[in-house]
Write a sequence for this structure.
């Protein structure tokens, strides 16, 4: 997932750094669709992270009431899994924040190009 996000960011930045690209609306629509895909991925991971946290809290309370070594192993495995999900969700969240900035830059670039083309037509 991170490789996909980095590749997409890299391609968007290459378009933004290009001086002769002028089809901004198509690029904006494409990038917006990619944002929607990542938002869906982020929502699914949030639901899973919260679900694991709830199960972990219940099992941790059960572990406090009993001294079952099998339950301790399960709780430790869930703690490790929860940490990995939190790290993954953190990376998704930071990635989508960067993508929002790219989207805003695309919108500004599109508006400035429209402004320049409208200005050229009136001259």
């Amino acid at each position: 997932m991170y490789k996909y996000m980095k590749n997409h960011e890299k391609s968007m930045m290459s378009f933004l750094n290009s001086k002769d690209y002028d089809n901004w609306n198509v690029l904006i629509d494409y990038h917006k669709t990619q944002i929607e895909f990542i938002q869906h991925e982020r929502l699914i991971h949030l639901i899973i992270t919260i679900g694991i946290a709830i199960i972990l809290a219940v099992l941790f309370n059960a572990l406090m009431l009993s001294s079952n070594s099998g339950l301790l192993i399960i709780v430790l495995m869930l703690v490790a899994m929860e940490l990995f999900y939190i790290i993954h969700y953190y990376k998704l969240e930071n990635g989508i924040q960067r993508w929002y900035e790219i989207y805003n830059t695309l919108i500004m670039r599109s508006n400035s190009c429209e402004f320049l083309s409208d200005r050229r037509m009136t001259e």
